[in-house]
Amino acid sequence: MTVSPDRKSEDTAPDPAAGALPRHVALIMDGNGRWATARGLPRTEGHRHGLEALRRTIRHAVKTGIRYLTIYSFSSENWSRPQPEVSFLMGLLRRFVQRDLTEIHNANVRIKVIGDRLTLEPGIRALLVEAEELTRNNTGMTLVVAFNYGSRDEIARSVRQLAEEVAAGRLAPEDIDEDAIASRLDTAGIPDPDLIIRTSGELRLSNFLMWQAAYSEFHFSPVHWPDFDEAAFDLALSDFMGRERRFGGLTAKAL
Ligand code: IPE
Ligand code: IPE
Ligand code: MG
């Protein structure tokens, strides 16, 4: 894997210029179950192949020079799936961290986990902390793992924290502004996603990064996640690079 330049100087940089690569790509990795069902396989096989697609995608993102890659791995609503599938997905996360952490670390990738950790089993929580600790000083791409993540839950936790600070007299209600909320989200310090890719043809957010997606561009790929490859990723990137982002203002040519 190639190592990208240092991150520190660009965290506060303006959003990517027109025609530039997205700085932050967020992925809704969807369609594992349908991929498997179409092949007469159990859904878990789809998840297993989905892990291969994830490895491929991380390598490609690093090589391409993406600075932040967020992956939606398990939502706060995915607990409602049958228990064996939930267990399989928990096992897959363990396997991912145990088998891939060294390669990820060697590629100078920093891992950051978002989502509610408190309700996860202690063994998984410890693995996530280990992954973050080992990679915390890496200066290449940041891999944001959304696990047990739900946007409404994240916002509710942030608001609860604000309320506690007000109740303790550490914060005045009039100081609660957009930055105060954003800085208490799990994604504090991470720039908003420039591009959100969802595979498998569904056209929805499913409780993913709703605050952060205010001005994200969307790319919907018909490909089921296990089949997502470098070409499908590049297609999403070139789609993004052809977009005109206005952030509520006017473009230079309209002025
Ligand atoms: C995405 O694939 C993986 C997770 C949500 C964990 P799905 O399991 O949602 O696959 P489909 O959408 O049922 O095909
Ligand atoms: C979103 O996919 C969650 C992840 C990819 C982890 P889902 O498959 O859970 O979303 P819905 O249920 O189709 O909206
Ligand atoms: Mg799905």
Q: Brief overview, please?
A:
The chain is of the alpha/beta class and 255 residues long. It is 40% helix and 13% strand.
Jot down its keywords:
40% helix, alpha/beta, 6-stranded parallel sheet, disordered N terminus, globular, 13% strand, 6 strands, binds 3-methylbut-3-enyl trihydrogen diphosphate, binds magnesium ion, Undecaprenyl pyrophosphate synthetase, 7 helices, 255 residues
Q: Could you tell me the number of beta strands? A: 6
- Biggest sheet features: 6 strands, parallel
Tell me which CATH architecture of the domain at 24-151 and 196-244 applies here. 3-Layer(aba) Sandwich
Q: What's the arrangement of strands in the largest beta sheet?
A: 3-4-2-1-5-6
The low-confidence parts are 1-9
Helix-strand pattern, N to C? EHHEHEHEHHEEH
Please render the helix and strand layout as text:
Layout: E1 24-28, H1 32-38, H2 43-64, E2 68-75, H3 83-106, E3 110-114, H4 122-135, E4 142-149, H5 151-167, H6 178-182, E5 195-198, E6 217-220, H7 230-241
Helix pairs in contact: 1-2, 2-3, 3-4
Polypeptide structure, described:
There is one protein chain. By secondary structure, the chain is α/β, with parallel strands linked by helices. The protein is built from seven helices and six strands. Strands 3-4-2-1-5-6 form a six-stranded parallel β-sheet, sandwiched between helices. Helix 2 packs parallel to helix 3 (83-106). It is globular. The protein starts with 23 loop residues before the first strand and ends in a 14-residue tail after the last helix. The structure holds 3-methylbut-3-enyl trihydrogen diphosphate (IPE) (2 copies) and magnesium ion (MG). One 3-methylbut-3-enyl trihydrogen diphosphate binds next to strand 2. The active site is at 30, 78 (proton acceptor). Substrate binds at residues 31-35, 43, 47, 75-77, 79, 81, 198, 204-206. InterPro entries: UPP_synth-like (IPR001441), UPP_synth-like_CS (IPR018520), UPP_synth-like_sf (IPR036424). Its cofactor is Mg(2+).
